[in-house]
Amino acid sequence: MAEAVDGAALSPAWGLPFLGLLLSIALMPLLAGRLWHHHDGKIAAGWTLLLLLPFAATFGPEVAAAEVWHVLATDYIPFITLLLALYTTGGGVLLTGRLVGTPAVNTTLLGVGTLAASLMGTTGASMVLIRPLLRANAHRARRTHSFVFFIFLVSNIGGALTPLGDPPLYLGFLKGVGFFWTTTHLLAEFLFCAGLLLAVYWLIDSWMWARERPAAVAAEEAAYQPLRIQGWANLGLLAGIVGLVLLQGLWQPGKVTVLGLPIGLEQLVAVAGFLGITAASVRLTPRALREANGFTWGAMAEVARLFAAIFLCMAPVLAILKAGEAGAAGPLVALASDEAGRPIPWVYFWTAGGLSSFLDNAPTYLVFFNLAGGDPQALMGPGAATLAALSCGAVFMGANSYIGNAPNFMVKAIVEEQGVRMPSFFGYCAWAVAFLIPTFILATFVFFR
User: Fold this and answer.
1) 3-state secondary structure of 235
2) Other C-beta atoms lying within 10 Å of the C-beta of residue 441
3) Are 114 and 399 in contact (CB under 8 A)?
4) What residues does 256 pair with on adjacent strands?
5) In this predicted structure, what is the pLDDT of residue 219?
6) What is the torsion angle, in degrees rounded to the nearest 10, for the CA atoms of residue 361, residue 349, residue 173 and residue 343?
């Protein structure tokens, strides 16, 4: 726990509740599905208590309470209110008409979503486009692969081009990295990985389409209707969310103390704005439109309770990482620099990326940003290769597991709510090993040697 306790003094044992929580998310849906789906919040809370009770006994109840408040106020509440606003407004945009999930249509939807993610965030793009993709493929017998690649591309890689796209880059923006630095320095890596994955997806979907294409599909194709957008007010509210995100980077009037913790006034304004936009979306969107969109609050509630436990349980792990070579993760941290102390870009790509696969990618980015020196001007100049590698690792490899980036889990929950079976935790990781890891290996040789 980073603020009141030195991460160098923490042993790896403090990471066991986080490991237990990850294993619960991974295994319990397979081994005890009914128990997990009815009591996932209680199980997650149990792992959290297994961290907090020993922590309070070791460092004192006041320190434990302060750490919990710090995590909730500075990390979880801003995160979950932004996610709530994006989820609510995205679920209020309805694309009507009829698309048929042919390989060309599906690839186009994934491509559009990948580009849109850098403008409205990976969460916003995911929420707007996942339901049209579900409807377009409702007649398909083989469709799981489409939603897996949707997570790869729209929920992760697509957010690489601006600080609006993904939380790690937003943190870099707050630290002084130029707004368009990622646009100019990550464009080639983005096009390489996204283009390769879209091509692979088109080949897979074409093969599956050829195997299953029944006469009923041809009839649906003949009944094609052009798309139209309903819920324009929510698109305006999405623009308001983008504005609030930008506000936090451009307007920093100082801090106010809330329950003993200094918090930036701009952050409080943004949280209030996100809640206000959520309320406005609920009020302005007709219930019939949300029903037609298949919108429910279940996916959002599941993400909210699980990520509350994830944020709290991963706090000591991040504190150990922040301690650098003085902490229990010292050998891992030492690998990131050569004998002269210079950062090694490909190591930053894989180390930050590997941790971002299972830890929240935003604080992981911040840890390695500081490990690389923490000076935005130096990192944008002589250290540009390191910053690019770090940025790509944190954004791209958030796709390696369901918990690497919040939209991953949210998309999974929405798809399963609609009756489509998604891979298990390890099953999804197997997809990532099969398609993402080879892509990232190629990217390493092309960009990060």
Assistant:
1) helix
2) 11
3) no
4) 263
5) 47
6) 130
